[in-house]
Amino acid sequence: MSSNIIEFYFDFASPFAYLAAQKVEDLGERLDYDVIWKPMLLSASFKQTGGQPLTSVPLKGEYSIHDMQRMARYMKIPFKLPTPFPIMTTAVARIFYWMEASEHSQEHASTFAKSALKAYFAENRNIGDHEVLRQLVKECGVDPDEAIGAINDDKYKNMLRTITEDAVSRGVFGSPFFFVNGEPFWGSDRIWMMKKWIEEGGW
Amino acid sequence: MSSNIIEFYFDFASPFAYLAAQKVEDLGERLDYDVIWKPMLLSASFKQTGGQPLTSVPLKGEYSIHDMQRMARYMKIPFKLPTPFPIMTTAVARIFYWMEASEHSQEHASTFAKSALKAYFAENRNIGDHEVLRQLVKECGVDPDEAIGAINDDKYKNMLRTITEDAVSRGVFGSPFFFVNGEPFWGSDRIWMMKKWIEEGGW
User: Which residues in chain B are contacts of A58 at CB distance < 8 A?
Assistant: First the structure.
């Protein structure tokens, strides 16, 4: 365990979080930073900022769809804007925290997070649907009944609420949003800058 | 004159346009693209998107100030968020179009644009103030009385209005916003992507 950390805040319904998820662990490994996955509910930020889901903003919405498709092609990552989009991501995030907290390791949880993002943004599987979540959990080799049970468990409800509130109080207004030993970076397109920041010790 | 163009839409009150202005001409020169400066009024886009000046958005505002200062340090460009900020940029934009349209060349106009952005974001000179504009025009070696007269000339009023409406109809929602032979790119932090796009012929 390194003492250096990259906190990775994201909403499971964020296309740019899906793109960032492909890169951030590589970055952490190469530079010996631990990546801490922190799924949250971006709707809580939107209440503060007056924001709304990116793709539904006039003008910006059209560009953002073009941009995420273009960025995915550039990164050579399969991507298809799913339908329905966006979706409620409360259940999938609670399952993540259940996996992280239970006998299952942090590693299992991040594997689950990656496969959930991929399922939604590359395979058009609705990760708001409990049946899809059950399959995904199973694919990670974990008991699906327990996982689905965690969705209504106060412990994980509170955990997600706390982490979301914490994110908002730390200024998280979009997804993905990173803190590199506390230094904030917004956007999947700032991973290069995080790398420079770490390598050069800030500037 | 190259047949390849980079259209550079921006509002004179945009800190990230100031940062981009330092880079975009280099890019054009290196890759043989003509850079066409297109100052506009971003407030017209905000009417469509429900947007507001970046720094006044809760959470996002604080981050954006941190980010522009950090980006300027990274680029080694002098930068100081001016007061007052933002300002009305109607007058400075109309003078730009007057310079571009009159016997003065396009080259003069972009020199004026660069010095106006620098005056505002590096020297804390209020480019909404006619006296400051008069000095800037003079520093470009152009008659300040004629320039100031252009601010209330219907020709340049219409020109700015038309270009702003055109920008909005083409989807410009932020500043800077570029079209590389028609391909849209938003943000000073996407110049690397424009370069790749040109070099690789898109993807």
Answer: 48-50, 173
The three-class DSSP label of residue B41 is coil
Give the Cα separation of A143 and A134 in Å (integer).
9
Task: Give per-residue burial for B67-98: e unless 16+ CB within 10 Å, then b.
Answer: bbebbbeeeebebeebeebbbebbbbbbbbbb
Backbone angles phi, psi at B150, to 5 degrees: -65, -20
C-alpha–C-alpha distance, residues B78 and B122, integer Å = 6
Q: Which amino acid is at B34?
A: D
The amino acid at B39 = P
Q: What is the layout of strands, in order, in the sheet containing B183-186?
A: B34-39, B5-10, B177-180, B183-186
Where do the H-state alpha helices sit in B32-142?
A: 42-49, 60-75, 90-101, 106-122, 130-139
CB A162 within 8 A of CB A93: no
**Interface test mutation site (partner B, options A60, A67, A194, max chain B beta carbons within 10 A):** A60
Predicted confidence (pLDDT) per residue in A65-124, tens digit: 999 999 999 999 999 999 999 999 999 999 999 999 987 556 689 999 999 999 999 999
Nearest to B189 among A67, A74, A189 (CB): A189
